[in-house]
Fold each of these.
Amino acid sequence: MEAKKDILWRVYLIYFIICLFGVAIISKICIIQFVDGDKYRAQAESFLTKFFDIEAVRGNIYDSNGSLLATSLPYYEVGMDVNTDAITQEIFDDNVDSLSISLSNLFQDKTWKEYRKDLVKARKGGDRWVLLQKDVSYTNLQKMKKFPILRKGKNRGGFVYLQTNKRERPFQFLAARTIGKLNDNGTGKSYGMEVAYNNYLEGTSGHRLMQKIAGNVWRPINDDNEVDPEDGADIVSTIDINVQDVAENSLMNCLRKHGADHGCLVLMEIKTGEIKAIANLTRNSKDTSIYMENLNYAVGVATVPGSTFKLPSLVAAMEDFNVSLNEIIDIGDGTCFYSGKPVHDSHHPEKSRISVQEVFEQSSNVGVTKIITRYYAKDPQKYIDRLYKMGLNSKLNITIPGEANPYIKNTEDKTWSAITLPWISYGYESRITPLQILNFYSAIANNGKMMRPMFVKEIHNRGKATKIFEPEVINPSICSQSTVNKAKSMMEGVVLRGTGKSLKSANYQIAGKTGTAQMGIVNGKMTYQASFVGYFPADNPKYSCIVVISAPSGDAYYGGVVAGPVFKDVADKVYSTSLEIHKEINSKQSEFAVKAPSVKNGCQKEIQNVLTKLKIKNQSTDLKADWVLSTMKDSTSIRLSSQKIENDLKKNIIPDLTGMTARDVLFLLEPKGLRVKIIGSGSVATQSIQAGATFIKGTQIILQLI
């Protein structure tokens, strides 16, 4: 009996423990399901869903006239959920052939049977994602939206696409290094305005929730937490693409003609420091007939300046010792020696005694070294200090990255020797970039005021200027006005009588300095660097320019012969297209029969700017209006009436475009998703969609211009 009780007690104990264990399990299940369920479901979901950044559309880069220099074009990765609930087997079977044919005809990368095989296989395998195509353009995406099944959209047709943006330069290599690039070809190399103004251009990324499906593929899912990206701002550069085109073509022709290794050119507006054109071309190592923009020599490479440095040397002497242009220098037979080392003039002088003015005009190495050693031999540091005071040893601190450091040797330098002072005076034992030497010449042309070179004028957001960059003064006076006047006289003499007389023009006067520097012996032959730097018009300086040609392979290597013609090409282009630098024929307008011209409808700001500069009377009925209708008020004046074009477009209403230019209508309509087809030239005469009609994105409008 006792044994039976002992056995029952043990059984009851085990039973109780099992029941207790069962209750614990059930309790834990309830806690997991009802108490901690949300937490564990979120953890599980985290393995299947993830937030991805949505790339913002990068801002555009424009030239000073509004031409597009760099933009981001949308491209799409397009896929299909072939097993979405809305696509029944009947719908799939009825449309898979026609869909496959449409895809094959559009992309022509696979036969329609191959497309069909992939779609059917994915359908049978239960796949929720089939990649149809990568890098699809916006135009082709719109075509795909009309394909069978896909035309039903995302939910009913399983049509899914992801946008990416690719940077494009409409003018290809024109100013390519200055416009720049981010992360060049994945190498991490970034340069130019794209880097300098990236904080304006990049915008703010959004984010999208995506789900991981079979094949390690992520697809977007609808989610209330999705945040749209904020597009980047646009920047308006100082570059004039029309002048840039002339500059690059002229530089290219010069490099090919002389078989040079590389060359650069910079055109600057003197009063503001705005860079209007900058070209850098390097010969392709595989095909020597091809030159590309591979390195920004003008900004990033400091080289021996050669004879162009004679101006800073003589300016220093004039400033410190009031050297006269009529002071006589004995250059002998064009050769002199310093510590046994010879200095030669490139040509035999016609006379042994010449003035300081003639020393500069003839680019006499001997003459310049004798002037500098005459005044600075006892205190060479005074000469160096003057060069430093004029800013020639300092970077310009421009906005685009990669500026090289200039190098002008100090007397405390371990390599300073008895020949250093004369050698520096005519452009050796120093390093300076083309842009830095150009900035010095611009300062002289600007009566001593040195400006910081600038590459961007404005930041625009949604077409409105949100930030304007004002010209910045580096040094209000690098030297006295009397020294400036002497320097200008010397540079004018170079073109009138000296080594740059081939640049003499009947229409306007150029002032400047030729430069020829020995760069070293390559393959047993001395290589040279030819340059010309100056400004125009000499009597009222507006623009400065420098041209540097490195290692011309032919017999011609002097700056006036090699670099001078390129300078002249660019100067002629700028002079012919810049009305403000032409002298007035007659300031008394009343002596001419003036009749107001016909003015096209368009942007009020631009129209008023042109009319004001042409001194044509105009009256606006609404000064706040962006777009106006232009009519004749009388024979000598124009009336500008407000047009509510932007208000209509916001409401998806076609405005009256009559009388507007193609440029203006493209600017207005294309951002709204309208496909614009233009026939003819001139101004809009008729439009295929009448004013007042509504439109949707993708609608085509045909404009007849006459």
Note: Confidence is low (pLDDT under 50) at residues 588-593.
Amino acid sequence: MAIRKIWLQQPIAFARAGGSSDPVPAFRWTFPDLRPRGSARTTIYPESSFSVDNDTGSLTQVDEPFILFKDENGIRPVCPFFELHGECDGQDPLDSRLTEQDLRNSNLSLADIEWEIRHANHKAYIATHSEGDRIEASLQFRGDDHAIHVLKGYSPKDAPRPLVFPESCGIAMGSLRAIRPSAQFPHIRLRFTAPKGHAYGPRDLDDRLRQVPQSRNLIAWLLDWVLLRFKANDEWKGFTLPSCQLILNPQAAWMDYKLVRYSELPGALVRLLFNFRAAVALFRARDTQLSELMRFAVGPLADVGKLPPGLFATWRGNGAILSSLGLVDDLGDGIISCTLRGVGTAKARIVVGPPHFSPDRRPPISIADDLIDKEDRGGPRNCEWAKADNLLLAKLEIQDLLDRAFETAGASNLDAWAEQRREENASAAIYRGDPDVPFNAGQPIWGDLSIQTVTDLPLFARGTWRHRRNSAEEFFEQVVRDNEGLITQWIRDQDDPQSVYYDKRMPALMRGSDRRPLHLTRRQMAAFQRWFDAIRAEKEKEANVEIQQSAVRAANLKSRDGAAP
């Protein structure tokens, strides 16, 4: 028996940081509780999960009666497993997971497996382009090594002005452990344990927060004085980090990074004079389009890879409106490789993100939707996709999308969003000089509903109520039957030129990665259209049957009335 090829399952996994040492167990989402007295909330249901024995590295099964996302030690991290799968002779076609016995059958052992990870945090490097601001970590160990391997991040060796000194303790970016196979769980697995979600700062952080900026010329000094006079950095008063997290080099390029320097303001004033219309638009929406305002200030050719400024810790003064405070976190992403001697190498990606603060709220467009849009965009366009045999699957896909829309509406302050988007519409219309957009920025969006109700958040109340109704299959199917123009009226078309403005079309009030109104993927739009056509076809079929039955009844009545007594 020979193993012909291998792969890792999942090919991409997302870990989430947390301060607790006890990871979140597995769970799944179920349908919202839409009973008459139900909560209308999405239900999270626990699944059988694994716990790793600290001493042996083997697995035990865990069945929690309910899910806790936070314990006395903090938020529980998400720590995914990677399973080694393969293709070999005599294998069960329904189970491609490899076991230690499969290795023996191929004259191999766990020692012939080599696990490797290359992991990085390049957030500071993206802004400064200084090699010393890279934070990278790597590990290699054999498959029969079941110890915990901590992933430590450092700046590249011999890089100038290293952000993380090679001789320091480094940034703990998580850990890996090859799971010891057992009789109960014989499969070959690796677990990635997420980091704590800590921030790290320069060794002189306390001094940096206490010092008065020393500017090189009178104008910069006056601007610094004005900022300090108005207590521009008050949010950092009393801020500190544990000494074990103050390990960064105060001389690194990241410590001196400035997003908008005072020296760039004269150029911004010139651009303001020659683009007064654009400047008015941006300043009008300064609270909601800060990134656009910053781009306008530094110029169209400037490198603004760290926008919006909320992506990193900033303070004001020292020659700039926004300067880096010099903090970094322990998040990152990387590639995990598993090499089996004589067979090949399997790879998977690990992405480490912040905690999920609303785990029962799923977005209407996810990374999975983007991936399947690239892999199977043409699927729903096949005329067979929503026919009788496949209609149930089509309904389930659309129903899941409607459920996620309801969940998102319940996690958003729609009233605040509507107010912000009205300002953005007004700003965008002036900025683009578009004559087709009404001057009333609120016209395409819901107006102020507070005068119609005593509810604190009337748009939120209306939105969640309507999305809850849409989650009921029978109700939404009836809506589709009664509204022929439903898709064009209520779903945003990514090809519509007016889709650059926020309006009532779904997904409403949400921003996409391109800083424009969010829209469904093309596959989701095609799926909606196919399902919509199938429902409308059913209605026409039922109408034709009803017409035929009416004709038969009329003929029977006529025959009866004309019959002899």
Note: Residues 3-196+330-353 form one domain.
